Amino acid sequence: MAYNGFAIDKYLNAEEVTRQLDELIKKPVYSIRPDKLDDYVENYFEKKCAKSKEMIEKAKEVIPGGVQHNLAFNYPFPIVVNKAEGAKLYDIDGNWYYDLLQAGGPTILGSNPPEVRERVIDLLNTCGPSTGLFHEYEYKLAKKISEMVPSVQKFRMLGSGTEACMCAARIARLKTGKKNILKMGGAYHGWSDQLAYGIRVPGTKGLMSKGVPGFVFRHTDEFFPNDLEDLERKLQRNRLSGGTAAVYIEPVGPESGTRPVSKRFIKGAEYLAHKYGALLIFDEVVTGFRIGPGGAQSYFDVDPDLTIFGKIIAGGYPGAGGVGGHDDCMAYLGAGLDSSGKKVSKAMCGGTLAATPISCVAGYYTLCEIERTNACEKAGRMGDRLTKGLQKLIEKHHLPFVAFNQGSICHLDSVGTMHFVVDWSKPWTIPEVLKQTGIRQKEMEHMGAAYMAEGIVTLAGSRLYTSAAYTEEMIDDVLARFDRVFENCGRIDV
Ligand SMILES: Cc1ncc(COP(=O)(O)O)c(C=O)c1O
Questions:
Q1: Contact at 8 Å (CB) between 67 and 95?
Q2: In Å, how far are 219, 282, 312, 478 from 110, measured between CA atoms?
Q3: Cβ–Cβ < 8 Å for 181, 169
Q4: Where does a domain end: 342, 372, 402?
Q5: Domain match, 447 and 337 both
Q6: Is the CB of 190 under 6 A from ligand 1?
Q7: Which ligand 1 atom is nearest residue 165's CA?
Q8: Which of 167, 256, 286, 308 should be mutated for ligand 1, with most atoms under 8 A from CB?
Q9: Ligand 1 centre and the CA of 160: distance in Å?
């Protein structure tokens, strides 16, 4: 074993996992059998989650779709959670669940750790949630991040990962004087207009971005994940139309590594971005303080110009976003002068509730706890145990599913929805691809419902985050529950 404080013992073979996912989408759909799904709906959700159902019905009258958070849209209806502690969630009907959603990623220490909560309560008792003026924890958090993450000389806190991604684009354009942004197809860099491009399924361009006018994408393009030749082709092409200001990378692959990339690709992307005068922007919203205390960049030994933070940076508390990076880039967020006193333009970004004392205190003590408890490695070991167990269960039940992980980011792909590609050179195939992804998405939701009925909350039925609050015994119990679901899976006619 060679974790060395990182979440990863041995990095996955991206080519091999990609081959397995390629196979998966060629096969018929396997999912929870319809009779068993009906049984779960009738005997679990309808009978044991009645209070959740009633509340969501009422909520639908005043909240579009009945929930405020995209991750809470669950089949057959969302459950209402009113207690969270460590690795467990509790709903208003008195049921409990293993939490593999981890609020979408921020709670690597587990839910509501007292070491952070008590500091937040102290702060509320003395200062309240916000003043609009400087608080000492803004300094403490920035200092901590600059000590933990090698490429971060300066850090600026914002309200969310989405905002931080927007801010980084402005810095990149000012710093390089170039126009275009390149992102990996399928990657998610928040929902701002210009970056809502090529989302989830590579090649979709603006197809998933309803409501965003096409001209907004004039300077945004996507390259194929794990494909250095395609990246270089796009960089070369951009030279004829204003150059490339930034290459955005999700370090373990698009959608938190759902489509994994190799170490070679990451190093190659760093080389190519710099060869063409672009900034390398590492979007570490998911991987920051999860792949290791120094983020994925420490693991891959990469020195990005800018790093985007979110999620863990506020430990599950509100206001989780920020940009960090090299001095000469971060100067564009200062008062108009760089560190040598040279005048530079100022990138406008901020927010009334950016960098509140709550976000900064919660972030600071979360990072301290991560270091003190070696949380990244611990959560990663749990991710390895979970993934190996899932792989054995998949084999045992002769299912076509694919399980793999990057430390505590685990993927259980039963249908391969995000492994499809839209190919504009064959436009007649696009409707069929979109139809297939829709069908498979529905089955993924059914799998999510089956897991929930067995007491496991997942992210959209296909991603599982482990936290440091898990023990080996808990993971084994989680696996016993997956076993019960897999036992009732079979080929589905779609
Ligand atoms: C890689 C990545 N970047 C950016 C974001 C956007 O962050 P936020 O949801 O805080 O706006 C996310 C959110 O999941 C993400 O996974």
A1: no
A2: 40, 25, 11, 16
A3: yes
A4: 372
A5: no
A6: yes
A7: 4
A8: 286
A9: 7
Question: Do 367 and 383 belong to one domain?
Answer: no
Cβ(450) – ligand 1 distance below 6 Å: no
The pTM for the full model equals 0.97
Whether 267 and 292 share a structural domain? yes
Contacts of 105 (CB under 8 A, 6+ apart): 256, 285, 286, 290, 311, 312, 465
Same domain, 82 and 118: no
* Total tally of structural domains belonging to the chain: 2
Q: Is the pLDDT of residue 458 over 70?
A: yes
SS3 call for 77: coil
Q: Is the CB of 188 under 6 A from ligand 1?
A: yes
pLDDT tens for 334-383 read 978 887 888 899 999 999 999 999 999 999 999 999 999 999 999 999 99
- Give residue 94 CA to ligand 1 midpoint distance, Å: 31
Length of the chain: 494
Contacts of 150 (CB under 8 A, 6+ apart): 294, 297, 298, 303
Whether 348 maps to a domain, the answer reads yes
Ligand 1 centroid–CA 13 distance in Å is: 25
Using alpha carbons, list the distances in angstroms from residue 297 to 33, 81, 281, 305, 437.
42, 35, 11, 11, 32
Q: Is residue 387 part of a domain?
A: yes
Q: By percentage, how much of the chain surpasses pLDDT 70?
A: 100
Query: What is the domain extent for residue 294?
Result: 114-372
Answer yes or no: is 350 within a domain: yes
Determine, yes or no, domain membership for 268: yes
Mean pLDDT computed over 295-322: 98
pLDDT of residue 98: 98
| Ligand 1 pocket, residue 463 CB under 6 Å | no
CATH number, residue 430: 3.90.1150.10
**Ligand 1: residue whose CA is nearest its atom 8:** 161
Task: Dump pLDDT digits (tens) for 160-219.
Answer: 999 999 999 999 999 999 999 999 999 999 999 999 999 999 999 998 899 999 999 999
Please state, in angstroms and rounded to a whole number, the distance separating the CA atoms of residues 164 and 203: 24
CB distance 465 to 105 below 8 Å: yes
Judge if the beta carbon of residue 285 lies within 6 A of ligand 1.
Answer: yes
